[in-house]
Amino acid sequence: MMRMATWWAALLAAACCWSARGQQEAPGAGSVPAGRAARNVAVITIRGEIDRKGVMAQSVRRRLEAAARDGADAIVFELDTPGGAVPTVLKICESVRSSPVKNTVAWVNPQAYSGGAVIALACREIVVSGNASFGDAMPIVMNPLGMLTGMAKAPTDRELLKKVLPPLIAEVTQSARAYNTAAGAYLRDEYLVQSIVANDVELWWVRHRETGVRMCIDRAEFEMLFPGQSTGGPTRLASQPSTGKLELPSPESSRQGIPVPAGSAKLAIASPEVSVIAPSLRPRIAPEDAGRWELIDKVKDASLPAVFKAEDMEHYGLANNDIEVGEGGSRLRPIDSDADLKAHFGAMHVQRYEPTWSEGLVDLLTNIVVQALLVVVFLLAVFVQMLNPGSLTAGIATAVALGLLIAPGMLIGMASWWEVLAILAGMLLIGLEIFVIPGFGVPGVAGLILLLAGLVGLFVPAGTGPFPDTPEGRNDLLRGGVAMLMSLGTAGVAMYFIAKHFGSIPLLGRLVLSAPGGDESDMLVAMDESPAVARVGQTGRAVTPMRPAGRVELGDAVIDAVAEFGFIEAGTLVRVVQVDGMRIAVEAAADGGAGPRA
Q: What residues make up the domain containing 27?
């Protein structure tokens, strides 16, 4: 019995060990580190330009929450982006850090420039594909027309850059310090990650002869450690172009390097303006350290922000890919597919979380070019409605264009209350002026101002407000105003053309009603002559119900008119009381009544 009990105990222990091994290492996992290993991996894609209005940030947050609910053990952010707007980038970084799933990995496949690089650094680890590119996160400032403004000639742009650089430097420095704190060693260099944000510092890569710590040093530290040695020579990153985007305020332009103004403070090294909570593990350099460090290479000069290829990221400790050792030496093992990703985590399942079609539609409809075109369509539809009161087609076009302008922002919480309220109030006042109140007075002017102000507000991100008190907000509002002026100019030209050829335009000609028993061509001629035949005091008959817009017959012409007071039934005798431009107002004649004309 004792021997049998011992045998069963040994068998049970072996089974437990096998079970524990199965939980720690999924099939194909190999020697996956415990902090990386995951059974269920969620892949959240971030592709294309990161928008100014925050659609991407909303989408990433939604997908993060969905992945956490579905039980993901690790979340991979697949990055293929040139960057984009600073506020949206920082929102995404905050979402990454606040996610309940802490095993977050950035997959640079194939590029993470600018804002993409900042997002990658916020993750726990970074892995790269074989042709990956990473870096160049120095912000550029755009004018309202989407053109690059030269900083040496634009003091307001220099002030804006001073405001946005400290948060970016703090962001990437915080990410590097968090990474080093978690590792318990100085592995990701602070100066190196700061070099992707600013371009005004030279860096050298050195290694401590005893501890093996590798890090970047600046010129002052170089002269301290290597006195009398030349600081020149080739740089490892010298051949890398500047291609990313990190823009304020516009996300619609191409990236170029911006020279730092003469006399400005060094931007890449954390200054008192930069607040970073996490403590630094970076070794301190002193004159007595000369001889304890060896020079590996010169990283970059002071001309452009740093850009890294896959091999550079491995060389400087930015990539966490596994290393393959072969006959030709060691090399980084690239992650080029979901199968590679699965093996990297030792995972059983890899699930992708893509943006929804509605998020893609909102992204399209909040594009400044599309918004400007919708404003043109909206204004033209209102104009056609004024030319032909009661037209169902023009009314539908007006409602659809306005809905496409307002609805996308409201659906994802990007619309401001004041812009929606201004548009609706403006349309109400203009409608009262056209259909109820004679002439064009205070209600019409106030309605037009409110409508234009609300339309301008559609071009700026939520939270800017009608009276922004920051340079960034004022620049956004100015950009919206310029876009609105361009829309008004385009709509004005189209309105003139429509007014001149309203009856002869094929599509719009169908909106014109034919007179009872009359020919359509005769009707169009009568419409063209309507301003001349209509005069105050002239009497006629209502051809259609006027509630308040409709059509009246004056002599041999049938024209558009509006009821001055109340509604008028078809067949009622009417009298013209006002002729004002394209608006003809009538009222029921005192001796009039419904019924056939005598």
A: 23-355
